[in-house]
Amino acid sequence: MDTYTLMAVGFLTFAIVGISVIVWIFVRSRKREGIRPLQVTDKDRKQFREMRRELNIWRFSASFLGGLGALALVAGMMSFFGLDTSGSPDWRGGVDCFVFGGILILPAIFVARRDRLSK
Q1: Tens-digit pLDDT string for the chain (119 aa)
Q2: Is the pTM of the predicted complex or chain greater than 0.85?
Q3: What gap in Å lies between CA 89 and CA 79, rounded to an integer?
Q4: Which residues contact 107 (CB under 8 A, 6 or more apart)?
C-alpha cells in the first residue's frame, strides 16, 4: 500500500473510533438518567430553541451569500488588471464576475434585512 492509502485508512479508523466513543458516552449518560437514547425531553427542546437562536441560520446565510458576492466583485475588479492572451483586459470575465457578485449580494441584503426585522 502506498502512503496515501495508509493515511486515509488511519484517518478513517480514528474518525470511526472517535464517533463511536462519543455515541457510546451519549447513550450511556441517557441510560443513566433513565431516558431512552432518542427520546426528546423538555430540557432538550429548550436547548434546541437556544441553539437555533444562537446559530441564526438567516444571519449565517446572509453573511455567506454576501461574502461570496464580495469575492466575485473583487475578482471582477481584478480581472480588469489582468491581460488575456491577446494582451487586452478580460472585459467579459470582469463583467460576468460583477453580475454574479450583484446577483449574490442582493439576496444577502434582503435576508439580512429580514433577520434584522424579525428581532
Answers
A1: 788 888 999 999 999 999 999 999 988 988 898 888 888 889 889 988 888 877 777 788 888 989 999 999 998 888 877 766 777 777 888 889 899 999 999 888 888 777 566 55
A2: no
A3: 7
A4: 65
Cell of 16: 470511526
Output the CA torsion sign for 68, 70, 73, 78.
negative
Closest by CA position to 64, among listed 56, 52, 54, 75: 56
Is residue 26 within a helix (H) or strand (E), and if so which, with residue range? Answer: helix 3-32
SS3 19: helix
Q: Which three cell numbers stand for residue 109?
A: 441584503
- Four-residue CA torsion sign, 7, 13, 16, 21: negative
Q: Residues 55, 62: contact at Cβ < 8 Å?
A: no
Are 59 and 112 in contact by the 8 Å Cβ rule? The answer is: yes
Burial class for 91, CB neighbours closer than 10 Å (0-12, 13-18, 19+): exposed
